Amino acid sequence: MGLNTWKNGKIYEGTYKDNMLYHGYGEFVWSKKEKYKGNWMNNEMDGKGVYTDKHGKKYDGYFRNGMKHGHFTFKNRKGQVSSVWEYADDKVIKKTKK
User: Fold this and answer.
1) DSSP string covering the chain, please?
2) pLDDT for the residue numbered 14
3) Whole-model pTM above 0.90?
4) Which of 63, 25, 23 is nearest to 42 (CA)?
């Protein structure tokens, strides 16, 4: 487990591989609102995680090689589910409104 901070405000806290690569479980914060918390593999979002965009919308689902891949639940700023989407390599293949 480790913590890395940058002068521009970015933060990563989590596990590493070979003391360099984000690997395992961790949280990366780009700004006050934009962040990802979940699984990493070789510096890429990979596996189950939650990405929060700069507008506060949450994307809860699966990533592969840094791209959305699989089932995603989208939540608005109030935490309410707004839709469910399926992705393949960052491309939407199915949308379902709630």
Assistant:
1) -EEEE-TTS-EEEEEEETTTEEEEEEEEESSSS-EEEEEEETTEEEEEEEEE-TTS-EEEEEEETTEEEEEEEEE-TTS-EEEEEEEETTEEEEEEE-
2) 97
3) no
4) 23
